[in-house]
Amino acid sequence: MRILVTGGAGYIGSHTTLSLLEAGHEVVVVDNLANSSSESLVRVGHLTGKNVDLRIVDLLDSAAVDELLGAGAFDAVMHFAGLKAVGESVQKPLMYYHNNVVGTINLLRSMDKHDVRTLVFSSSATVYGDNDRVPLTEGCELNASNPYGRTKEHIEDILTDLGSADSRWSIALLRYFNPAGAHESGLIGEDPLGTPNNLLPFVAQVAAGRHEYVKVFGNDYPTTDGTGVRDYVHVVDLALGHLAALSYLEGVQGTFSWNLGTGSGSSVLEVLDAFSAAVGKEVPYEFSPRRSGDSAVSYADPSQAMADLGWSAKRSLARMCEDHWRWQRSNPMGYSSDPASQHRGPQ
Ligand code: UD1
Q1: Ligand 1 atom showing the smallest separation from residue 203 Cα
Q2: pLDDT for 26-54, tens place per residue?
């Protein structure tokens, strides 16, 4: 199939682009490089022996998006592009709603106009909000607790309405739990802008000596060791989930949602142990107060994805940490570690 991947230079997008190419699909990436580097796709090119066709376009530029869809002869779109920093979304909600929701609407209108009605959307378990009812099933109430999460929830609503209004659409909403790890080559991985907010990239930067220690946000949660529990899922497993969803959509119409998680949770201290084992030395940490907005425990019931897509996460937490560390160790400053790769958008 010929697939348009929005945000394909980013963390999950680049791993999915790699898996699509490996599976024999043709891929065009559209990315504004606001929070990603074109170097990721150069490396996907090295890994696959194929050139990745990158168009530097912002989804807010509706004319450019329309031109792309009009000329592309695409069979489907995978939509990753979007802003994703929770704290920033609280400070700048208009920017988040405009970028994520309007960008998606521009994309959908052009898809509709040019008869491309198969879409895999990058949603997030963040749509469940602070919900201690675990494991989380797709039927749980949606109640995102910050503007970033609400952009995902609003887009899910739009896509659900679209799927019921017009039976020509086939749409997958993939709710990722906590993406972690990197491709086993160590060539592509997560390259966060500024100081990372998420646990794994922060732990990796501490291990690399970029920060002194990890602050463990809260050790008085009602969990086995008092620290927060999350469902970490390997980014390569996530990428394969997208391919499985795409195959499923070939035979159906409507909008479908699936949790992509492992189904089991790990505490912050368990992650620190696993990462220290991967590095071969202790990653230093200190306990600090809870981070506001965090829930104690979140993990998926991934059985729907298994039943419908035949998908399950295969890679362990140990493997995620080993792969994440291999990427971090060989790219201590992310893609900009490579002086040849300075193609990153304005920061
Ligand atoms: C966060 C976002 C969520 C987003 C998800 C993936 C918040 C409140 N939630 O979820 O909306 O979808 O990332 O991008 O920001 N932790 C530490 N020290 C750190 C960082 C994290 O102890 O320096 C702990 C957290 O308290 C949590 C766990 O590690 O228990 C995972 O945190 P994180 O990676 O930020 O993911 P989420 O909180 O699940």
Answers
A1: 23
A2: 999 999 999 999 999 999 999 999 989 99
Which pLDDT does position 337 carry in this prediction? Answer: 73
Which domains can be identified in the chain, with CATH numbers? Answer: 2-337 (3.40.50.720)
- In this prediction, residue 158 carries a pLDDT of 98
Q: Which long-range contacts (CB under 8 A, 24 or more apart) does 113-117 make?
A: 113/66, 113/69, 113/70, 114/66, 114/69, 114/70, 114/72, 114/74, 116/4, 116/69, 116/72, 116/74, 116/75, 116/76, 116/77, 117/166, 117/168, 117/169, 117/170
The values of phi and psi at residue 195, to 5°, are -75, 125
Q: Is 97 a catalytic residue?
A: no
Look at ligand 1, atom 27, and give the residue with the nearest C-alpha. Answer: 228
Given a cut of 60, whether residue 165 has pLDDT beyond it is yes
pTM of the model: 0.96
**Mean pLDDT value across residues 276-305:** 96
Ligand 1 midpoint to CA 199 (Å): 6
227, 291, 297: residue to mutate for ligand 1 pocket, most atoms within 8 A of CB: 291
Distance in angstroms (rounded) separating the CA atoms of residues 82 and 154: 13
Average pLDDT over residues 175-198: 96
CB 32 less than 6 A from any atom of ligand 1: no
Number of neighbours of residue 115 by Cβ within 10 angstroms? 10
User: Cβ(124) to ligand 1 under 6 A?
Assistant: yes
Catalytic residue among 148, 176, 232, 299: 148
